[in-house]
Amino acid sequence: MDFELTKSQQEIQKAARDFAKGEFDKDLALELSRNHEFPEKIWKKAADLGFIGIHFPEEYSGQGLGVLENILIAEEFCRRDSSIGAALILSSFASECILRFGSNEMKEKFLPQVAEGQMLSGGAFTEPDHGSDITAMNTTAEKSGDEWIINGTKTFITNGGLAGFYSVLCQTDLETNAPHRGMSLILIEGDRPGLSATDVGQKMGIHTLATAELNFKDVRVPATNLIGKEGKGFYHVLEFFDESRILIAAQGLGTAQGAFDRALAYVKQREQFGKKLAQFQVTQHKLADMATKIELARLITYKSAWNFDQGRIDPKLTSMAKMFAARTAVEVADEAIQLLGGYGYMTEYEVERFYRDAKITELYEGTKEIQKNTIASAVIGKIK
Fold first, then answer.
1. What global pTM score does this model have?
2. Out of 37, 96, 365, 369, which one is annotated catalytic?
């Protein structure tokens, strides 16, 4: 059992760290967050250097690497800045649906544009009336000749209104007694007539990410826009979640490490009662707890990524990673604010933004309660 990263992985990790250090300017991050603006210039630079879609095959402008290499980049980006990092690592969100299940023509058309920073992608799964429950969809896609006609509403869609295309989960069999067996994934381009996007409004965090409600009114797409097999959309999305949960775990891990870095630097230079804060045992114990949580989150996140790259689907493991890393992000960022005291509450010192950005990792890609359901189901198994 080897816990060391390969030389190539270490080089990717360092390259991501150096890029983030050079490009993720603190003042720019604050401005982007304040203006709720996507970091387009940095995203394009990251794409030019191969950081976006690194897990795509080379023929689709990727580097043919794995999920582990992808999450190493995610961790470093979010460590340097939780807001810019989140925007960059989710710029290709749900493109894996095309990568894993799409036709060759679909991959050739869309994946290179994502990897080269020409186009954002999005996944449209959540609905206003269903939330975490994707076993039934109100969004429908009906076949009409050689087209699909889509009607319905999706909400809390990352990159909504900006994405060049969305992987949309639709009900295609309206007669089935088991709705989840009658769903299909359909690619819908962002400029299709009848598709509109409305910003969901002010959010607690991740201000550099667009989050929108999508409305589909008689949106027509070719029948060839079907992703994977008709009626298997629910299962395709579950497999995608098994990969995307690892990415969100890495987002949480990087956010936690970034908050810790700032807290550690602060307590080593700040003096109170004639001593550095780092010299007080209570501070040392807080740092020890934070560092331990981060290391445990890193171990299970890396293991989940490595396991996926071996071709194994393990919802229990990825749910554990996502749940634990997300909780670690929230707890470490919270403690970082506490260590900085009143300064921790100030925008200039960043940890309050890391705290706000951390919370979303416990919500999207399945809430922590959904992750517990998945873990418990695997642990208990079938009850006879």
1. 0.96
2. 365
